[in-house]
Amino acid sequence: MEQVGSHVTGVFPGALVGVPWLHATCGVCEFCRSERENLCLAKEFTGYSVDGGYAEAVVARAGYALPLPAGDPAHWAPFLCAGIIGFRALKLALPRARGRIGFFGFGGSAHLALQLASRMGFSTVAYSRTPDHLALAERLGASEVVRTGVPSAPAEPTLDAAVVFAPRGEVVVDALRATKKGGTVSVAAIHLSPIPTLDYDHVLFGERRLVSVEANTREDAREFLELANLYHLESTVTERPLRQANAALLDLKQGRVTGAVVLDCTSP
Ligand SMILES: [Zn+2]
Description:
Blueprint: E1 17-18, E2 22-24, E3 44-45, E4 66-67, H1 73-93, E5 100-104, H2 110-119, E6 123-128, H3 131-139, E7 144-147, E8 159-164, H4 169-178, E9 179-187, H5 200-204, E10 209-212, H6 218-230, E11 237-241, H7 245-253, E12 260-264
Parallel strand pairs: 5-6, 5-8, 6-7, 8-9, 9-10, 11-12
Antiparallel strand pairs: 1-4, 2-3
The structure holds zinc ion.
Zinc ion binds near residues 29, 31, 40 and 42.
């Protein structure tokens, strides 16, 4: 952080802060007034509704910027957007007692959420079509990894909860099929292709719940960063210069990234 506004207290130039996706909320709508600012009717987003994000410099609101523990900024970058959303999705899905949680699609968001669930004592299963992603999941403590997209016998439901990170509707059905009665499937994707017709009797009946996730609250962000620090969560990062942003996005889309990509905005 280079400069601080004249009315800002408690933070000083030189401190390491993170600027998350959530730029501001209105504070007065029904959602803001009921501790659900993630659903705010007038929220603003970094790099989307306000300038910033893919930029060398950004203006952030003090109440929304997150003080970060010391260390390499590239280590903390994946925790700020992908990480927080994955954390909120995980929280919405968590079983009441210890249990088995599935992570469908294993990229920048899931690689942090799975570590957290493993360290909290849950049994964790990573599902991906990409062998490199599954190898990372094993290294980060997954109890089991499952390669998807290869023919196999239909499995019995063994999960107590599942989080879907892949932006594909058919994966939601796979996750529901793998989840036992009473379990929750939460969808961390912001956009999702259409979900195929659901066979209610077999995939939803039995008090299974299907929930989506919209943005995050500041409390989610604070809680997640505290837990990340407490459990020493490790981010797997490939750094690239800002000018390679488009190529990096293409690699991400085509599954050529393991973990997360961080764009170095200080690099020419
Ligand atoms: Zn609001």
